[in-house]
């Protein structure tokens, strides 16, 4: 018997496996009014945090009997410059609702960032373990002018370095680390899209608010004497009781 002829190889295309990092939105409830309120508190009403990024909607934390209006959620997310393309988890009815919107099933997907619907409280519940691989960062954005009240600087996908004062009412935001080589008296939000390894460094720490990956602390809680008005770093500590901010002096 003659050997079977090999099938001709197509010349116009190839099929390859691929990995596509996405932001994941873990839903903890179906009250979209509350979600919008929490979203505004987290992002300050700005739509500049995202640039039509692909989004995975995680339904796994919703009660099985919940009937979320995913179409209304999609409208809100599009207004925030996010593109929901896939879903994960959920009851059979929830999964069918997601598929009616054209979202793909991605139960095995691994997200680089996990973004909760609301900012974490001062003593949050135990969180899902953070992914071990952080998204790559571009070169740092350097700002060498003082920032006045009402001004905001956002370093998308990279670290932020500020060499001048951040005045009260000003806001510095970065997806990576934040370095302020001057008094930090406004707000500093590092790891804005979920990087739990991000840190904040300040030469003079007198901030109104500091936040890393959604875990925040405001000036309503006075800073300890050993760091107030001094050089300090802020990092996220994750333990069995949840996430908390550690504020440590710098030599």
From TrEMBL:
One example of a Gene Ontology biological process annotation: division septum assembly
Keyword Ion transport attached: no
Pfam family, any one: MinC_N
Domain Septum formation inhibitor MinC C-terminal: 142-238
Keyword Cell division: yes
Domain Septum formation inhibitor MinC N-terminal as annotated: residue spans: 13-84
Subunit structure: Interacts with MinD and FtsZ.
HAMAP family: MinC
UniProt protein name: Probable septum site-determining protein MinC
Organism: Tepidicella xavieri
């Amino acid at each position: 018997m003659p050997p079977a002829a090999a099938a001709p190889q197509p010349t116009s295309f190839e099929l390859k496996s691929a990995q596509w990092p996405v932001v994941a939105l873990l839903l903890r409830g179906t009250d979209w009014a509350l979600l919008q309120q929490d979203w505004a508190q987290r992002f300050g009403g700005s739509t500049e945090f995202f640039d039509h990024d692909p989004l995975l909607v995680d339904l796994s934390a919703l009660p099985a009997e919940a009937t979320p209006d995913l179409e209304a959620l999609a409208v809100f997310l599009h207004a925030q410059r996010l593109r929901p393309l896939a879903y994960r988890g959920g009851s059979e009815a929830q999964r069918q609702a997601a598929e009616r919107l054209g979202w793909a099933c991605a139960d095995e997907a691994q997200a680089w960032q996990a973004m909760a619907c609301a900012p974490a409280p001062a003593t949050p519940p135990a969180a899902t373990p953070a992914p071990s691989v952080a998204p790559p960062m571009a070169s740092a954005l350097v700002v060498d002018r003082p920032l006045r009240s009402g001004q905001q600087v956002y370093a998308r996908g990279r670290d932020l370095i500020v060499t001048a004062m951040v005045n009260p009412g000003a806001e510095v935001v970065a997806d990576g680390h934040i370095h302020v080589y001057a008094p930090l008296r406004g707000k500093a939000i590092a790891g804005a899209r979920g990087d739990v390894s991000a840190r904040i460094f300040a030469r003079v720490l007198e901030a109104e608010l500091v936040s890393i990956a959604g875990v925040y602390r405001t000036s309503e809680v006075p800073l300890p004497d050993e760091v107030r008005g001094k050089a300090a770093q802020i990092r996220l500590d994750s333990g069995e009781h949840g996430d908390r901010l550690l504020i440590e002096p710098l030599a």
